[in-house]
Amino acid sequence: PEDGSSDEGSLIKVIPYEGYELPPKPISAEELSDGTFAPLIRAYVQRIIEREAPIKQDLLCRKILRSCGIARMGVRVSAYMYDLLQKMGLHQTKEKDSVTYWTKEQSPDGYPFVRSSSERDVLDVPIQEARNAAVLVIEEQGALPMESLLSEMSKLFGYSRVGANVHAVMEDGVYLAIRKGLLEQSGGRVKKAKGNDSKSL
C-alpha cells in the first residue's frame, strides 16, 4: 500500500461471539448469599471464564444468577458475588467502573479478537474488543472522522445502528487505542499513530 504499511493483514481477527450458558440448577437468593453453595459458584465462575473470557463482571454474574433461577441481583446477592469474585484473585482489568475477567493465558493488551454478534448487549463488550475494532477499521480504511469510525466499528460487532450505548462503548475503545499509542487524532480525524506497527497490539 501507498502508506508503506505492510500488506500481510492485521493480527486482529473478527470471530463469532459464542456465549456460554451454565446448566440450570435452582438455588434461592438466600442460599446463594449465605454461602451454602460457595464451592459450586466458584466452579461456575471458573467454567464461564474458561469458555467466554474476556467477560465483564456484570455479564458473568447475570449468567450465574440465570442458572440459579434468580430473577434479579438484589443488594445481598450482589454484595456476596462481588466479595466472592474478589477473593478468588482472578486475572482482571478495570476501566472506569467496569471489571473484565480474563483467563491466566490471555493478555489484555495483546488480545487479538473482535467477537461479533448483535445478540450480545453492547454494554457487555470488553473495551479491549472495541479498541481492536477501532484499530482494524483504521488499518483497512485509513484515517476517518470519529463518527464514521464509530459507525464502521459498530458494524464489525453486528450492530446496525449507533445508539447511545453503542456510541459510548465504541468511543471508549477508540480512546483506549489512542492512549495505548495505536491510533492518534488530528485534524478531526482518527488515524494510525506514527511509528505504530499495529502488527503488535
Describe the model.
The protein is α+β, with helices and mostly antiparallel strands. Helices cover 44% and strands 15% of the residues. It has helices at 29-33, 38-52, 57-68, 75-87, 127-141, 146-157, 164-179; strands spanning 13-16, 55-56, 91-95, 98-102, 113-116, 144-145, 183-186, 189-192. The protein is elongated. The two termini are 20 Å apart. The relative contact order is 0.15. Mean pLDDT is 92; it is low at 1-7.
Summed up, what is this model?
The protein is an alpha+beta fold and 201 residues long.
Descriptive tags:
single chain, 201 residues, alpha+beta, three-stranded antiparallel sheet, 44% helix, disordered N terminus
> What proportion strand?
5-15%
Biggest sheet overview: 3 strands, antiparallel
Number of beta-strand segments: 8
Strand sequence of the main sheet, in spatial order?
A: 2-4-3
Radius of gyration from the alpha-carbon trace, in angstroms: 19 Å
Low-pLDDT sequence parts: 1-7
Percent helix, as a range, is 40-55%
Ends apart, CA distance between termini: 20 Å
Instruction: Report the average pLDDT across residues.
Output: 92
Oligomeric state, counting identical vs distinct chains: single chain
Number of helices: 7
- List the helices and strands in order: EHHEHHEEEHEHHEE
Classification by helices and strands: alpha+beta
**Quick one: overall form?**
elongated
